[in-house]
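Table S2 (text version). Query chain:
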Amino acid sequence: MLIDDFSNVRKSIKGMLNSLGVSQVFEAATGSEATKYVREQRFDVILCDYNLGKSKNGSQLLEEWRTRGWLSYQTVFVMITAETSRDFVMGALEFQPDDYLAKPFAMDTLQNRLDRWLDRQSALGPINRALDKKEYPAMAKAARELMENKPRYRGWAQRKYVEALVKQGQTTEATHFLHALLDKRDLPWARLELHRIEVGEGKLELAERGLKTLVMMQPNMVEAYDLLAEVQILIKQPQKAQETLSQALFRSPRSIARQRAFAVLASDNGDHIAATGAYKEIVSLADGTMHESSRGYKDVLRSTRTQLQSLDDEALKRRLNKDAQALLKKLICQYPNELDTALFSKAYRAYLADAADTEATDPMFLASIAQAALEQLGELGEASALDIVDILYEKGLTKAADELVLDLRQYHKGSGTFVKRLNQLQAEPVTQEARSHAHKTNTDDIEQYKQKDFEAATRLFAEALEFSPRHPGIILKYVQSSLLLMGRSRLTVSQLDRSLDIVNHYQFERYTNIRDKVIALHTKVNHEQSS
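Corresponding structure-token output:
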């Protein structure tokens, strides 16, 4: 099959193939047309142009066909492209086509390559048939035989042999085999597979050292960066993991999985500018592919909202808000039949609305969203539910948010992580104005606390609690500074009573120790006063 969006190019290459004796050539101008053919029959060779206009590109087709099991491993998939930039070349190779052919090419080049492709597929037939069926013992046996009988394809057979061993859980055998190969010759792919096994066995420090060396020796081996970032996450080094993925994206930015991993890390690390940029790139890359979904748009909007909350630059906030509103319109237009998306979109419309949008700024609009969410709990995803609750709190609809939290907590009582996040949302500042004021006051408080001026710190923390009475950090710091002030005999009974009220109101695990201390101290003071 020949896949190219230009009919004259297809005609030219088909003419070459016919002249070389290939009589049966299917043509496809778009990704959807090619996919239809692939699902109906098996091809010996597929020649696919990388750039297919507005259709999915060649890498996206290869990824989808491999992921969904539509493309047999017995088919040679060749990527054709005239692109020469690193982004496109690395993107074309990301999902490992069997070969790569640069345009323009002459007939003798095509003939040499065609002979090579067919000869290789003939030799690798038993391995690929076993791989199609996921029969890994047979695959390992066929790979062994190929290594012994056909030295020309030994390197390829070695990789498949290791893959078959790992799939069967025979990591010890795979490790010994890889070490034996590396004793004879330095093979980057073998080093990578060895480190992958080390990660699986929990030998994280060993894997990290080896992977750092590997990326220095092979700076364009993006899989090594991906694995190194995984290790750095496991050993609690998220900042380093973000930097590692940043280097990988610099070399090959067109992988959606890599962009998503980077976006999540950047968000967790508080780098909201980088996170928003990565989520936007995911939406762009996913357009028209198997990855396209409402999730991509929602991730961008969530990240933008977090970024907006941390900004003081009004001009930048207006620009981000405008971009978010444009993205929200696309989300509403493209996914009109998803109930979860409809409720999510209404909440974000209210969040992003300016004074001109009188409907969305009306408190009744948000109240109607809360009511609809209560009536459709089964259709509302956890992530969207958290967004709606958070926006209700930020817009000051505390009662409606509390009612929704109560029902969500009961409906999702089996999901500990989700319920914990709901509890955290209830404990955070309830409005954007309160969050902003609490942040400023809390910053001043912490400075007083560090200077051990506990009387001033307690007074400032008390002021902050007036603006955000549910903020867990402020609650803890108020009580802690109050207890330290008590140690200097400057705390009144009324202040101690307030501390007790605060910590008794919340039953989260993080308050247990400090609550017990306050109760004990309260009991002691009352006893001393009564006697």
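Notes on Table S2: Residues 374 and 403 are 8 Å apart (CA to CA). The radius of gyration is 30 Å.
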